[in-house]
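Re: the 123-residue chain
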Amino acid sequence: MNKFRQMRVNEAARETLSEILRTVKDPRVSSSFVTITNVNVSRDMKFAKVYFSSIGGEPKEIKKGLYSAQGYIRSSLAERLNLRITPELTFEYDDSAEKGARIESVLKSLGMTGEEEKDEQNS
C-alpha cells in the first residue's frame, strides 16, 4: 500500500473510531472524555495501533474498558469503513498532552511565557 493511501486510511480510522467511542456503553470509557489522537494501520491492514488520551479517569482502567469493548468497536469500524480487511486493534495511552502541559509549567516557573519567548527571539 502506498504512503498516501495509508495516511488516508489512518485518518479515516481515527475519525471513525472517535465517533464509535461516543456509543461505547462500558462505564470505564463512557464516564471519561476519551479522545483518539492517532491511528497507525500496518501496511498489510491486519493491525492498527490506536493512541488515545483522556480527561478524567484512570488510563489503565480506560484501556481495560476499550479492550472489553473491542469486539463492538471493531465490528462498528468494519460497518463504517469499506475495507477488505478490518484491522485488529491495540490501544495505547498517549501522554503527549500531559508532557506538553508539564513543559509549559516548567517554562512558566522559569519566567518564560509565550510572549516573553517571542520578544527574546526578536531581540
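The chain has a mean pLDDT of 87.
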